[in-house]
Amino acid sequence: MPAVRALLILLLVSAPGWTAPEPPDWSQEQAAGLKGDEQLELGLAHVAQQHYVEARRWFESAAAEGESRAKLNLGWLHEEGLLGTVDGDAAIDWYTRGVLAGESAYATKLAWIHLQGQLVQSDLATAERWFRYAIDAGHPEAQLGLGSVVLAEVMGGDSQRIDEALKLFSDALEDGLMLASYYLGRIYREGLGVPPDPTLALDFYTLGAEAGLADVQWRLGEMYAEGTGTERDLILAAKWAYLAAANGASESLGLIAEVEAELDRDDIAEARRQAWLEAGGSASDLD
Q: Can you tell me the distance from the alpha carbon of 39 to that of 17, in angstroms, rounded to the nearest whole number?
C-alpha cells in the first residue's frame, strides 16, 4: 500500500548541489570547514556517480555534524545493499537516528518496515509505536497505516478496537486523505466490528470514487449493480465501472460485462457519457 520506499529514494538521491565533474573523496582535510549540508551534497554527488563507499564516508561525516538527512541516506545505502550487502540492522539504526534527529516523516517508513517484516522480523508492537510517533509529529498519512493495522486486528476478532480504527480513518479523511473512504466504506459495507450500514458505506465510497480512487469506484459500481444501500441503477453501475477500468482497476472488467449484458445501446451510451463528464471531459466533445 505505501509508496514510501520509492519516495524516499527520489528525495534522497536528488540532484546534488556539487557541480564539478568529480566530487572529492572524503578526507579530514576535505571535510574541514564544511558544514553538514555541504558534506551531504558531496555524498549525493558520489551517489549520482554510483560511488557508494565514498558517499557513505561523506554521509557519515555529515551525520557527525548533525545533518539528519545524511542519516537517512546512510539508512538507504544499507537497505539497498549498495555497500556490498543488505544490512537491515544498520539501515534501521540510521533511519531511527534520522527520525529522532528531526526527520519525523520517516517514522512511517520505519513502521512499515517493522509491520511488513522488511529487513527485520515482523514486529507489530514496534510498527504501531512508529505509526503513533509519526501521528504525534503531525503526519496524517500514518493514520491510514495505523488504521489498517487496527482494522486487521478487528477482522481477526478483536472487535473492541473498532472505535480506534474508525477514529483513525475519520481523522485521515478530515485531513484530506481520501483513501480513508475505502476503509470506512468497507467497514460499514461488510459490518466489520459494527452493524452493517450500506447507506453509510455508499456515502463513503462515493467520496472516494469522486476523488478518482479506482478501487473505490468499482466497489461503488458493485453497490449500484446490487442495489445495496440504494436503488439498483445499472447506468450508474456501468459509469463507475468504466471509470474504475480507465483508472487501472482490472477487477471492474467483470462488472462491466455483467452490467452491459442487461443494458441496451442507449443506456450504455448514457453511462459512458456520464463517465466522460465525471472524468472531466467536456460536454461539447460529446456532440
A: 10
